[in-house]
Write a structure and sequence with these properties.
Shape: globular
Helix content: under 10%
Number of helices: 1
Distance between the termini: 37 Å
Largest sheet: 10 strands, antiparallel, barrel
CATH superfamily: Calycin beta-barrel core domain
Oligomer: single chain
CATH architecture: Beta Barrel
Structural class: mainly beta
Order of helices and strands: HEEEEEEEEEEE
Length: 165
């Protein structure tokens, strides 16, 4: 399913994908806030920041290798490492998480307005629903995730750019 609320053509969609793809390749840093909702049983509340190494795998795939620190609210600091896999698809850009050598699909983003992207549809992973929204800005882009399920009510607010300032 492809959502195209820009009123434009597939050509415009492909241009938007190329623009975002170029922006992804210039990413070098991230910061984020994890804010559990009222139904969350994880207690994963805090802030993180770090560096992003971009690995270009092919013309249609690149990886964000993230390393940084997560500070639990009122608690300890934890070293963090993530691998996110971005893939160009017809009319969309898909995001997956590289988890213990396995690729775990999260959601597919489609352009909705000039600088905004949203999940084409929620993705079911076991009992949880994953969705996301991406907004391009002057310094990079923000990515908001929502994860809901029987034990999860998580909201992650990422900011990506050339640096952490």
């Amino acid at each position: 399913m492809t959502i195209n609320t820009t009123g434009g053509s597939m050509q415009q969609s492909q241009e938007r994908i190329q623009q975002l793809w170029a922006r992804l390749q210039t990413t070098a840093a991230f910061s984020y806030v994890s804010a559990p909702g009222p139904r969350s049983q994880t207690g994963w509340h805090g802030e993180g920041r770090g560096r992003v190494s971009v690995e270009i795998i092919s013309d249609d795939e690149l990886h964000f290798v993230e390393q940084g620190t997560f500070q639990l609210q009122g608690g300890q600091s934890i070293d963090m490492h993530n691998r996110f896999i971005w893939q160009k698809r017809a009319g969309a850009i898909a995001l997956s998480h590289g988890r213990r050598g396995e690729r775990v699909f999260l959601f597919e983003l489609v352009p909705t307005t000039e600088k905004n992207w949203s999940s084409a549809q929620d993705h079911v992973c076991i009992n949880d629903l994953y969705s996301g929204d991406l907004s391009e800005n002057d310094t990079g882009f923000s990515l908001t995730w929502h994860i809901t399920g029987p034990k999860k009510d998580e909201h992650l607010f990422y900011q990506y750019g050339a640096d952490n300032s």
